[in-house]
Specification:
With 622 residues, the protein is an alpha+beta fold. The chain is built from 14 helices and 20 strands. The strands form 5 sheets. Strands 3, 4, 15, 16, 17, 18, 19 and 20 form an 8-stranded mixed β-sheet that branches. Strands 1-2-5 form a 3-stranded antiparallel β-sheet, with no helix packed on it. Strands 7-6-8 form a 3-stranded antiparallel β-sheet, with no helix packed on it. Strand 1 and strand 2 form a beta hairpin.
């Protein structure tokens, strides 16, 4: 990870130091505060390391003038909050920014080889250098974490002394000081040697510290440390789970749980935003008279919406309630949110019929869509204007955020809050559907079902391995139409990155795969006005779309890694992909909803032995 550039310490308008008197350490983009450096993550700044503070520890830094409130009722209802807030900007207008805490606290000096807490080096104020040697201190390369999301220092003293005693009061009672040195003979962990000046134990290397049971063998378990909430914060419920050693910069240390929603009518005009905090209370009422009385009391007779408008919004919200007998789970509610988006993308929303404040404009192309019929594509729509809100719900450690369950998610604060951090994206896109009759016939082919079943089995096995209770693991979403739509979206993004002038990292997929859904939305994923220049929408007209799909499918027919790529029995993480690699269909992580898994270009073009498994095989034969 490249450290952000150092920034000068700012002063207030009158020339005085900021009120909090805290030094500034670096800069990150607003979007990174959601996706890369969110609450609980580790961030490297120059030669120092910090953990981003929790929301309840950072109330003073998330200033209202630097963290504007944004609204997206459908997503707020899903995540049980009232509203969202943008992360503080870290540009020249910022007065404060995000709060961070030094972590890990264990540092080493390359000159004297001491390995001890940062404060024991007696560094000068505002600097991270050894008070004796005056050289930069190096944060510990190693940390430990558990699957519940806790994070702690690596237990160097127990590792050297191989002590099975879990009593933390005995740490360091030998009277010696730890030292760390590098032999330089190899670049492996064997070259990192830890010793103690007590002379009671021989020096040991870090080799073996990454074994799954390395710390369990020392009878060390998680103590529930949460350094982003304070240096002494621990889980009051305790923990006791197994600890894993990780590199400080490993992606397993922090993975965001992101949830998103498109702003669609009737919420996309922004007129309902002033009532954001009142919707939970309003949902209790079904009688318009009761709603009128509540609004009069809440707004003192000056409600920005009429009673009829409020009732229409309440009816629209109840339409998204999932139809299940018992209390709906989070997955059911999220699926209902996607279903409503799919319906709106299919039906459209003409610009001529809306106000200038409308944030969702979806129109039928002007060209003849019948030219797409041989491709099995129907109902293309030009999404000329869209707004997506992406919220940081929680984070995980050691567990894939895509397949996590609530017990594995670590909340962003110790106490419940009425808001979550989020980013809003303005852009444009192209929506298309696959012909249901042709898709149904293709899905029923035994060769297609067998190929996808191999992927589904491998994915389900991985989910069960990562779950504490395999019987409660989430189900794999792999189905023939889901894998087909996913792979099609990837090849289209690669194709349109050449035709529309956007880099592939600026385009993003949104899949709608279900029993009654078979669509894909490809849209710009930028947080500024560059996301709506019209270049992508122009590709959605039937003529250009026909050429783009044919070109993308023909590109997918061959890969630089063939025949190994096409003939691979398994590819990707634990065999979850089949014919897919970085030379053909994989995308930057910002573009893919599923972390580049569940991909198979053979479902697009077929294989040499079974060309019929390709949905677009007739296009190649024509």
């Amino acid at each position: 990870m490249t450290p952000p550039p150092a920034r000068r310490r700012r002063t207030a308008a009158n020339g005085a130091a900021p009120a909090h008197n805290l030094p500034r350490r670096g800069t990150v983009r607003r979007a990174q505060a959601i996706s890369t450096y969110g609450v609980g993550s580790l961030i490297a700044v120059d030669h120092e390391s910090f953990v981003v503070s929790g929301l309840d520890q950072a109330d003073q830094s998330w200033r209202k003038d630097e963290s504007p409130v944004i609204h997206e009722r459908r997503l707020a209802r899903l995540l049980d909050v009232d509203y969202f807030r943008l992360p503080p900007a870290s540009d020249d207008t910022s007065k404060d920014g995000l709060r961070v805490r030094r972590f890990p606290l264990t540092h080493s000096c390359l000159e004297c080889n001491d390995l001890q807490p940062h404060r024991d080096f007696s560094p000068p104020a505002g600097r991270s250098v050894c008070g004796t040697c005056e050289v930069d201190l190096v944060p510990s390369r190693f940390v430990v974490a558990c699957e519940a999301g806790h994070l702690d220092e690596f237990p160097y003293w127990q590792w050297v002394h191989r002590s099975p005693d879990r009593d933390s009061t005995r740490i360091g009672t030998c009277g010696g000081k730890l030292r760390m040195r590098t032999t330089g003979r190899t670049s492996s962990l064997r070259s990192i040697v830890i010793s103690c000046t007590c002379g009671q134990v021989p020096e040991v290397s870090m080799e073996g510290s990454f074994r799954r049971n390395a710390l369990k063998d020392l009878r060390l378990t998680c103590r529930g440390a949460r350094p982003w909430l304070g240096t002494s914060a621990t889980d009051p419920k305790g923990c006791g789970l197994s600890l894993r050693t990780l590199q400080r910069g490993s992606s397993s240390v922090w993975q965001p749980v992101l949830k998103s929603a498109l702003s669609i009518p009737p919420w996309s005009s922004g007129r309902a935003d002033p009532l954001a905090e009142h919707w939970p209370a309003l949902r209790r009422f079904t009688d318009p008279e009761h709603v009128r009385i509540y609004l009069q009391g809440a707004f003192r007779g000056d409600c920005p919406l009429s009673l009829d408008e409020v009732m229409d919004l309440l009816d629209a919200e109840r339409e998204e309630d999932p139809e299940v007998d018992r209390a709906p789970s989070f997955d059911h509610r999220y699926r209902a949110l996607r279903n409503k988006e799919y319906e709106r993308l299919c039906s459209g929303n003409d610009e001529s019929e809306q106000s200038r404040d409308e944030q969702f404009v979806c129109e039928t192309p002007l060209g003849d869509p019948s030219v797409l019929r041989p491709l099995g594509i129907t109902g293309p729509m030009l999404v000329k204007k869209l707004r997506e809100v992406r919220a940081l719900k929680a984070f995980t450690r050691l567990v894939d955020a895509e397949s996590t369950t609530d017990p594995k998610e670590m909340p962003l604060s110790e106490k419940p809050l009425s808001w979550l951090p989020a980013m809003e994206v303005q852009g444009e896109g192209v929506f298309l559907r696959l012909d249901e009759s042709r898709l149904d016939a293709w899905e029923k082919a035994p060769a297609v079902a067998a190929r996808v079943e191999r992927m589904r089995t491998a994915h389900q096995r991985m989910l069960e391995q990562r779950a504490d209770d395999p019987s409660r693991a989430v189900s794999s979403p792999a189905t023939p139409r889901m894998v087909l739509l996913h792979t099609l979206a990837h090849v289209l993004i690669n194709e349109w990155s050449l035709e529309a002038g956007y880099p592939s990292a600026s385009l993003r997929e949104r899949l709608y795969a279900g029993d009654d859904m078979a669509g894909v939305l490809v849209y710009t994923a930028t947080s500024d006005s560059a996301g709506s220049l019209g270049g992508l929408v122009a590709q959605g007209e039937p003529g250009p779309l026909d050429r783009a799909v044919r070109s993308a499918v023909r590109r997918a027919e061959w890969c630089a890694s063939d025949p190994l790529c096409m003939e691979a029995e398994a590819a990707g993480s634990i065999g979850i992909n089949l014919a897919a690699c970085h030379a053909c269909v994989m995308l930057p992580e910002t573009s893919c909803e599923h972390n580049n898994v569940l991909l198979d270009r053979a479902l697009l073009v077929g294989t040499p032995d079974e060309p019929s498994v390709g949905f677009f095989q007739q296009v190649l034969a024509g």
